């Protein structure tokens, strides 16, 4: 280790920044955040620093650096664009034992500045010892994504309870288990989702119940798993999936997404839609409630978004009426995922001012939809569950005034390695589909925006090259991705 990592208190200390440009501004801003008194030595200030000066947040010494400027400094930054001056500042620091950071030449000074993840009071700092600031920033951005923004609030809450927990739980082992439970359980999740009062109330209850481990009630997380590509999961979805004791999932959840759940979590498959062995919706609702009542943290994993053709509303209705705590985590819905990965913008200034999501599920061989409205121009209509009913969709839309040449696309297994995009018109799509037999799940997109697909498509499913070489594709009608 080349440097000693420390967190230094600069509260009300005199810190000096030599230089008045943008780089100096960043250091000044950090010093101010940490409560330092800041003096800037520079003939001129950039606009941001001038603003700090006008607001009296910094003192400005309007001249070049001169020997003696570091005399009463606690800490100094050399941030001019003149290497020689920076060097002199570093030299002066060494002589007077004032720690100096030389911006851009860290080896010249006595300390370096890390990349910071600020979730105050939680602060994480990353350094590569000056070898690669860009790498440090990259690591920082990775950490940013795994340290939820709510960690600051969580630390603050823990800080307030620290003494009381110490009094209640005398043994250090018990305290550690208690805090483990708080930081990975319902309290933390409530903090992350912004429910501070509830989090505090739960913490109170768990403290009153002793170690908190036996607090009894679990929780259900209704998680949108997105259309298939696991990269499209939200951070919150991933965090909850990795904490779950039980994962309840169905057919639509892609394997790659299911694989992101904690490996030792119990997995319960609740079946296919038309499978006789499938659990009925009421049974699923009750299963979720029962698992949570047995103290489990349950992830109910759904394809796409739980509130878009996902029956999420019914599931949480049961939970709410039985007093089971739950959270809903949105996911990328199939329309958004498939459209992006197929290169079809769902709205477009010239072609579509609105987008409608409808179910194309056949009931008694028909669909009870507002066809005259769906046949209107200047909009995009997206059919979920429409593969079987495509001939009906095609027929009804044309019967209600949609021109036969309105572009239409069918996206098979969107966002996955098996994605394929078939394009045609509302009149020809049923034939194309009958010939090509796409595999579910599939999504149908109808509207002028489909004509942009050829130009805007960008996603190459890795399997494309072999599939493309072996399947009989008519250019322009079927596009393999
Ligand atoms: N809640 C889900 C939709 C459930 S309904 C969501 O928000 O996406 C199931 C229908 O979604 C399927 O019949 C299909 O039309 C569509 N669908 C889901 N994932 C898909 C995918 N990866 N590719 C194409 N269509 C998909």
Q: What can you see in these coordinates?
A:
There is one protein chain. By secondary structure, this protein is an alpha/beta fold. It folds into four domains: 14-113, 3-Layer(aba) Sandwich (Rossmann fold); 150-208; 219-332, Cobalt-precorrin-4 Transmethylase, domain 1 (3-Layer(aba) Sandwich); 338-456, Methyltransferase, Cobalt-precorrin-4 Transmethylase, Domain 2 (2-Layer Sandwich). The protein is 36% helix and 18% strand. The protein has 18 helices and 18 strands. β9 (246-249), α10 (255-258) and β10 (266-269) form a beta-alpha-beta unit. It is globular, with a radius of gyration of 30 Å. The chain binds S-adenosyl-L-homocysteine. S-adenosyl-L-homocysteine (SAH) binds at residues 227-228, 252, 302-305, 308-310, 333-334, 338, 384-385, 411, 413-415, 441-443.
Secondary structure topology:
Layout: E1 14-18, H1 22-33, E2 37-41, H2 47-54, E3 58-61, E4 75-78, H3 83-96, E5 100-102, E6 115-119, E7 122-126, H4 133-146, H5 151-168, H6 172-184, H7 186-192, H8 196-208, E8 219-224, H9 235-241, E9 246-249, H10 255-258, E10 266-269, H11 281-293, E11 297-302, H12 312-321, E12 326-329, H13 334-342, E13 354-359, H14 371-374, E14 379-384, H15 390-399, E15 407-412, E16 420-425, H16 429-436, E17 442-446, H17 453-456, H18 464-470, E18 478-480
Parallel strand pairs: 1-2, 1-4, 2-3, 4-5, 8-11, 8-12, 9-10, 9-11, 13-14
Antiparallel strand pairs: 6-7, 14-17, 15-16, 15-17, 16-18
Helix pairs in contact: 5-6, 6-7, 7-8, 11-12
Bound molecules: S-adenosyl-L-homocysteine (SAH).
